[in-house]
Amino acid sequence: MTNQTPNLYALLIGINFYFPHRLPEGNYYKNLRGCVRDINNVETYLKDTFNLTPDQVIKLTATASDNPNQPQEPSELLPTYENIVAKFKELTAKAQPQDRVYIHYSGHGGRAKTIFESLKGSMGLDEALVPCDIGQPNSRYLRDLEFAKLLEEMVAKELVVTLVLDSCHSGGATREMSGDDQIRGEGFIDMTLRPTDSLVAPLPELAQNWQNSTENSRNITVVNGLLPEPKGYTLIAACRDQEFAYEKVFEGTERNGALTYFLLKALRQHGTEIAVEDLFNQISNQVRNEFGRQTPMLIGETERFFLGGQSVSFTPGASLLRSVPVTRTTRTVPVMKIDITKNRVQLQMGEASGLKKGVEFDIFRFRTRDFEDREQRIATVKVVELGASDCWAEVTGLHNEFTTRELKPKLREGIIEIGSPAIYVGPPLEQIRKVRILLPDPLPQIPGVDVSSLPGILETQKQEVENHSWIEFCPETEKDENVNYFVSVNSQGEYLILDANKELIKNVLFPIKVEAPEAAKKLINRLIHITIYQTRLELDNEDAFSRLNGKLKVELVKSVKRQRVVLNVDGKVPVLEKGAEDINLVIHNESTRSLNITALMFDDMDFSIEQLYPKGVNYEVVEPGQERTELLELLLPENYEEGVNVIKVFATVDATNYHLWELPALDQDLQGRKAVVVTKASNEWTTEKVEYVLR
Asked: What mean pLDDT comes out for the span 361-369?
């Protein structure tokens, strides 16, 4: 029976001390210094904030002592494999449906020879959390398939799970850092032969759970491959797959993990009734500002309050991003940095998202949910400097109580917070599409409508439509070569949209009658939608000197007698039959850098844009020389005999978010569905596309 008042339980694991050991190739997991402090601070915060009893907090820690061979804690409280598994199961048994569960791990992550050869092959690896006694030959890692199963059991019991992992797996030669910085994770692969049984579940059951978890997510794994795409729980991880999780002395003399430190700092400032996306936007940018090579990740159930199961809703404002589902991550751009001396802010959107200099954003108060409430607006900024995945924007206006009489508004301390949401105000001049009205001669006779007045009606109505700045009605004297779209009326009294060659735009199936209610508004929304679609489809990195130029290869491939046959050789546009054969999208990273890959589907049958790959996360990291292969399902909507689809694959060096680009199908509800050395922005991103006809 569901509790009326859900309880909160916490499982806290922190490992500073690793028993002295040497693995077969001389590698070993070094002691850390901030992990136990992380856990103690988290425990104090949770107990003070929620009045938790000792029964509600399970803690396993390993703290160094004066004896280099022995930790301070007794054996029953150490984070050994046996204790970790037992405490997961104890907590799952204790908590009742709808209870909240918080899990926090601070320590090393690792890689080891797989014990799941039937699933991963004899050369496969298991990603794992590293228990404190891993140096013992009969000890075990908490492996990826086991960790996934423990979490799945919690979700299956309808527990509201929040997971924080302040650890990493990458590293290698740069393991020891100078100064106060240290990294959690080692770069080696442990080939030690270890026990092949599991205390979590039988190996076939673990393998089946893993396959079920990854099957519908196209085998996407996150957090260094440690977990499948999270379903039913919220995950905040310290860094991306190829990055580092740092710890440092932030205050006083003791270390903290960067993620844990900024997480607790934000919670103490804002309280727990905070949307997890708000919280993440602030702490992830604070971590990134401190350590440029650490990019935290938020994955899974993101539209919740932190430590709670309630959904968070947002009210959209006047923004181009209104064209996508209304969630904080997909509709807004967070403030990354604030530079008061230069009167500007850094935003997490750049050239790779089609941004141009001169574009304006409105910045709202941190934690704003209603973007129609203009009282929440803080500032207006204009983009003055572009990076690949970020930009600097100068403050051009301050609003509400921050308004001043100065000719040039100046930022002051505390006006804008890191993580504050910014809303895209409008496109740059070069992206605005010109529209000319072409009325037929003679004018059609439409009862109750003065056709000759339509140009004036449309111009007036445009000002009342969101995103209206994307189009501009031009006079009849405008030369044809300067016009992007023409609007006409046929003899049946229906609006027509024509392209620059005065040909009817295909696949706009449902006519708009001139006399219909809100006909002018519907027409303008169509023009705006088509404009945004075409602008995003045309985006390309045209810098011939970009270091990533030609380094991203995208192919449509089918298998013929065990041979790979590439269908789009030399730019060929293949004609594919719906459901007739298996077609794979193959993405190759031929550069020397790790790239964040996102594939978007541009569908000219309904003018929609949808993130095709990966699902559930913003991007997937593809290492140099590696490739990703994804099976495509080819679908043709009803009422269509043929359509052209374009798959655009974007690759960026830094993290970005192409959910910002998604568009629903045309005419659907706009909230619905579907001589110093400098770094050139064009060197940090690239894009390639494949096109095919589907019948």
From this structure: 93
